[in-house]
Write a structure and sequence with these properties.
The complex is a heterodimer of chains A (173) and B (962). With 173 residues, chain A is α+β, with helices and mostly antiparallel strands. Chain A has four helices and seven strands. Chain B is globular and about 115 Å long. Classes of the chains: A alpha+beta (173), B alpha+beta (962). At the A-B interface, strand 1, strand 2, helix 4 and strand 7 of A face strand 45, helix 17, helix 20 and helix 21 of B.
Chain lengths: 173, 962
Amino acid sequence: MLTVPLPNTPSRDEMIDALLLKAEVEAFNEAYARALDEQRLMDWAELFTPDGFYTIISRENYDRKLPVGLIYCENRGMIRDRAFALEKTAMFAPRYLRHMIGSLKVAQEPDGTITAGANYAVFQVLFDRPDATIHQVGRYVDRFERTSEGLKLASRTCIYDSLLIDNALCIPV
Amino acid sequence: MAWRKVAAFEALRDGGVTGVEVDNTPIALFRMGDEVRATHGICTHALAFLKDGYVENGTIECPLHQGVFDIRTGQALCAPLTRDLQTFAAKVEGGAVYVDLKIDSTQPDSGAVAETASAAPAPAAPETADAPAQLPLVIAGAGQAAAAAIRAARAAGFAAPIHLVGAEPHLPYERPPLSKDALSETFDPASATCFSMQDAATLGVSLHLSTRVTGVDGAARRVTLSDGTALDYGALLIATGGAARRLGVPGADLPGVHHLRTHEDARAIAAALQGAKRVAVVGGGFIGLELASAARARGAEVVVLERESELMARLLPPALGAAFRTLATANGVDIRRDVAVEAIAARDGALVLATTQGEITADTVLVGVGLIPETGLAELAGCAVEGGIVVNAAGRTSVPGIWAAGDCALHHAPLNGRRGRLESWQNAEEQGAAAGRSIAGDETARADKAPWFWTDQFGLNIQMAGVPGLADQVAVSGPAAAEGALYRTLDDAGRVTAVVAFSDAAALRAGRAEIGTIFDLEAAGARLVAPGEPHDATSEEEDDMSADPAAQFAKTYVWPKEGLSIIPDWVYTDETIYRREVEKIFHGRTWNYVALECEIENPGDFIRSNVGPTPVVVARAEDGSINVFENRCAHRAAEFCRDLSGNAKEFVCPYHQWSYDLKGNLVGVPFRRGVDGKGGMPKDFKSADHGLKQLNVTTHRGVVFASYADDMEPLADYLGDEVLREFEATFDGRKLTLLGHYRHSLPGNWKLYHENLKDPYHATLLHTFLVTFGLLVAGNKSLMLADPTGRHGVMASAKSDAVVSEDKKKEMRAYKEGMTLEEPRFMDFIDEFDSPWSVTMATIWPNLIVQREMNTLGIRHIVPNGPNEFIMKWTMFGFEGDDAEMTRHRLRQGNLMGPAGFLGLEDNEAIKFVQDGMLGIPGGEHLVKLDPDTEAGTADTLISEAAIRAMYRHWRDVMGIA
């Protein structure tokens, strides 16, 4: 027996609207991943709305409704501070990262808000190790807003499954 | 033009430096008598505040990397600086100091200060300088003695021009590295340079490189150079050094035969050693042995050919020469004595040496048979030369107006009855400086410090002070011809003539004082070495190694002689040490953090935790008691509890369903009595004997500790008064609420985390975030507390009142222009504690860090996992009664710490770097020498490692490491 009911069969127009919206969010996520992969953190910060919320929280905490996050930003100012500090002051070994985003699911609420979810995996390469390690896997829980500059994140909660972090998380996910 | 009042003149210490700020620009103010100078406050090399620097002779030395700037001009005077410092106009009016950022004080049109700025001249000539000193100084030879002479002459006020004439194309450089580091491919020749272009400019020196002094007229005081230039001099310093003695046999000029004196020689030898399989070294002196050592380090077979019957027979008594021979032999060098090379021939792509002991084949021949001093110029000038240029203690030769120094000059006095030259770094420095001072008119100049010399070979640094007589007796203490060996040479009256220490700088320093005194063999635990006696000490040691494990441990793990200021790598990387730490520390007499009570509030609540590496379960039983027991089934060792936390009525091992109650007692064993009367446990099996290993438990203010020791002292006694006070300042009686966890694994030794928080030195150096945004400001009160045992510590600092009372936004002012936080409120401190400190990091031995970083509060629980890795589990908490905004404030501030924290991630990376460094290049040691005034314990300065030393005093005690 199914525990989640199948959705009603949508109309063709509804399906096209949904596909277009999904393509738009997909394109957003690609730009998001690219900004992080290329470590353009100030560009990354601009993908959020001015009151955009961003946190990286362990699945352990999320499931137990404990609020502590690895990174906890209540607005774009804090996101910019994070980006600025990482670029200008933080000391960490150089590294390459790849953000893979997949299994996207998008929904538009009756009030126009776009909610989305996706799985992510972040590969990390340190220069003195042969292997790319899976630095973090998890999922995004997102809320988008449509602005004059296109879609922006009003909220992104990154819920990571890989509870035991390998040393440090230097670049956002 | 905007003069800004920045300070009261009286507030500035004469000869000191003070930091102020003008329009968000940090400024360093220097009071020099009645005058005040202003420069930018931040070093041009790295982010460091010059107000913390060191002022000397009109210069400011940066506290971080010892770069030196001229205060008046801002000129960068030495490496590592590459950019000059910005200077600003400053003036004193009506007792106040004014600065104008718009005016560069070094500009000629800089208004009010133009007069004083342009009056900044080269060092003035002293009034006592006699007339000839006004004429130029010409220095023949551009080596280390020349560089020392220039510096000393200028420092003593010599104001006339200086001409430096050198045959090599290089600026003066030091030669000791040539037979050591310079033989490695990665050596940077610049690192040996002891006189830079910058120095030449600053000290007013005209360079004539690739040029020789070819003629001299001592009466007319004139020299001619190889390029035809004629120079009149007031003083001539001959520092021409010498040339490598060539091997005077047929074939000595063949390719593949190398002599060593210059950079180019060293490069050629380095290239030859690359891929050399068989190396013959001709000459068993210090240079020969260093070359042999370098060749061995590259894996080559090495034979050393020495003409005399013992190594260094013309420098050292035979018994001491034998010590060097023993060391070389132990490192795989084939030493042949009483052998002379008669010819070298190239045959079949190899070099064949015909010797008095037969033929030797090699692909590279390195010759180290001594130095011929370059005295031709001195002889031309009519100076007395007796195997070296004769000089007095001030470096004057027999001809007025001519001085000599360095390898080409004799020592001014006979040494143990012998007149000789000292071919050493120290002698070049000493004689050069004495000559320089004397040339500047300082009649007190003398080069008469006790001779000192060092050689690096076969991984040891061997230093010698004094001059041994060839017939002296030799006494040794410590091991023979190995690290830690200490030799003394004794004249026939029993007085010490020289001290030779094998990799023991402290012993050498102490030994210097013995020179000239009668030596007491017995009191020093030394013995005399007969010339023919074998130095091999290894045979005794091998017998002892079969002794019992405890003796073997004590023998293997010996703390360095220097004491607490050195920590050997094996403390952090050795598996045996790690296993002993688990036994003696985590399972020993310690209270280990395991949980917060708020994680297990109700009966049946449990969490998985660890005591050291050992997995335990912390559970609250029906009677409300807190119980800690090993997470290892008494039957087949399964780690049965797998959930991070939860609520249970009992614990059942999934493998064979053995069940335990919430206190760890064994309750049920399936089929204990077998089936149908067959099988089952023995009849005498008692469940009570097979419960889980239960630990001693105590709690304080909501924090749960466990111990393997049943008779532990109360926690309050364990912590001691001072640490308990800080613990209770954080855990102030309010009920804790759980905010969440982080977990990460760190590729480093667990003790490095303690050390990081007993090391206030790193805070402003590693964490530039704090400095960049002005979060660590001058006047912050701070403390690095160590408890009387040394195992616990508290690093504490307080935001200064002045800063707190200021407008919050302003408080976040950037020290680097243009760097401000958009959301500075996350750095607010809400003073909720009864404590003078806004930040405390308590390191509670062995596995707990209590973080009170303003309002973000957390437990850091260390779980070691072998010597090279540990897991850190963070438990962040708040207090009952926190409103939603207070909780959010704690969460916002949490961005500072944790695996992704602005500060936290840097600590993690630094610890990884340290472990990587030890694993990459093992067998080394760490320096923890800061703040020698406090040997170990609480420090009243942040530039201190006294708390780390205190921890290791305790650690060694517990570990039984003498």
